[in-house]
Write a structure and sequence with these properties.
There is one protein chain. Helix 5 crosses helix 6, helix 5 packs across helix 7 and helix 9 (259-268) crosses helix 13 (362-373). The radius of gyration is 21 Å and the shape is globular. 46% of the residues are buried. The longest helix has 34 residues, at 151-184. With 410 residues, the chain is of the alpha/beta class. The protein has a seven-stranded parallel beta sheet, with helices on both faces. The protein contains 15 helices and 13 strands. The protein has two domains: 2-225 and 389-409, Rossmann fold, CATH 3.40.50.2000; 237-386, Rossmann fold. Strand 11 (308-313), helix 11 and strand 12 (330-332) form a beta-alpha-beta unit.
């Protein structure tokens, strides 16, 4: 089986995808991937046929962090997906013609690539690296990060507010997304539910243990649990000098002007009996680094989490789940995108503390860190539950079955 994989030019979308690709390759399947340019060499070293996405796509930078309110941020994010999607159409069409794959695996946020995949007639699947907006009576309306609320009152709140939040997404996203789909030859989407259930298979990189409980899930959704991978990198020389428990602090891999999180952590934790390690993968910013801290653009989190007693994150699904999956409690300070939903899920699980960026100060962050450290027992139980989902082998099983079903139907 030859699998063509297409991801957004983002490490946060590529890295959790790699374990599935490694499992496919281990089973003898050929993997061809288009992704972020900086990681192509590492992927080739793993035995994949890898090339960067069109540089013009990567040049369309996310500007949602510039929005002055949630609606403005949503519109900016959607404009980004549509601009990238228009460039994805010819790129993915050419790749399919050149590579003749048996199966397509497409990043959920690559709207143009998904439209081409659907129109191709080939078996295809989506890979989702973020909380799903799919509504349910038991689930808070997606977007603002509302607390779960049980009982009749909670269902009434959800029923009243979901059309407002999901309706806004539909009004902003569907017209442009459907223009892409018409150009690709795919049928238009009816609504947001259709958008997230159209793929025959959605590989959902999380666990039921972290998701809000709901009575039913679409049959197309496959929970794998969180998946992690990092490119090989040498350990920094100072790593062996760390003698105290580690507090890991990290910002987004795609710039969103969240450097204040690192600055607040470095200041707030300067007097704590911790070794603070802060990473800023979207680019280092000027910070005052106290004696108990180290600041770097990138350090493999796998080297730090075994020593960590807490992780302070911006609410990226990958970074937050990476910590929770090994039993490290989190403090989540969401700056935008879907990060409030990630933060609230971490809080609702009992293994995390949510702190609004509007209330972010060094003192409040220090208090949140102290509180989170006490949640270690809950985080350990959550990690055990997350590990039971089946992981990359289960994803590979379902992809193989999808391809076999398609072949049998032809």
């Amino acid at each position: 089986m030859k699998v063509f994989v297409y991801t957004a030019p983002s490490r946060g979308h590529l890295f959790p995808t790699v374990p599935v690709l490694l499992e496919l390759r281990r089973r003898g399947h050929e993997v061809v991937i288009r992704t972020i340019a900086t990681e192509v060499d590492a992927l080739r070293a793993l035995g994949f046929t890898a090339d960067p996405v069109d540089p013009a796509i990567a040049a369309v930078e996310l500007a949602d962090f510039k929005g002055h309110n949630p609606l403005a941020s949503l519109k900016a994010g959607v404009a980004n997906f549509i601009a990238r999607g228009a460039l994805q159409l010819p790129e993915v069409q050419r790749a399919i013609a050149e590579e003749a794959p048996d199966l397509l695996l497409v990043d959920v946020l690559c709207w143009g690539a998904a439209a081409v995949a659907e129109a191709s007639g080939l078996p295809w699947a989506s890979i989702q690296h973020s909380p799903t907006p799919l509504p349910a009576p038991e689930v808070p309306p997606f977007g603002p990060g509302l607390r779960p609320m049980g009982g009749l009152l909670g269902r009434l709140r959800n029923r009243c507010l979901t059309p407002l939040t999901l309706g806004t997404l539909e009004r902003v996203a569907l017209p442009g997304a459907n223009r892409l789909r018409v150009r690709a030859g795919a049928t238009p989407l009816r609504d947001a539910v259709d958008m997230y259930t159209r793929p025959p298979l959605t590989i959902y990189l999380t666990s039921r243990a972290l998701e809000y409980p709901r009575s039913t899930w679409p049959e197309s959704f496959l929970f794998t649990g969180p998946l992690t991978w990092e490119p090989a990198a040498p350990a920094p020389a100072w790593l062996d000098e760390l003698t105290r428990p580690v507090a890991l602090v990290t910002t987004s891999s795609e710039f969103q002007d969240d450097g204040v999180l690192v600055r607040s952590a470095l200041a707030g934790l300067a007097g704590e009996d911790l070794d603070v390690v802060a990473t800023m993968p979207a680019g280092l910013e000027e910070c005052d680094v106290p004696g108990n801290a180290h600041l770097a653009e990138f350090v493999p989190h796998s080297l730090l989490l075994p020593r960590a007693v807490v992780a302070v994150t911006h609410g990226g699904f990958g970074a937050t789940q990476k910590a929770l999956a090994v039993g490290v409690p989190v403090v989540v300070v969401p700056f935008g995108r879907d990060q409030s939903e990630v933060a609230r899920r971490a809080e609702a699980s009992g293994a995390g503390v949510m702190l609004s960026p509007k209330r972010l100060t060094p003192d409040r962050l220090r208090a949140a860190v102290r509180q989170a450290i006490t949640l270690k027992p809950v985080a350990s139980v959550l990690a055990d539950r997350m590990a039971r989902e089946g992981g990359a082998p289960l994803a590979a099983d379902r992809l193989e079955a999808l391809c076999a079903q398609s072949a049998a139907a032809r």
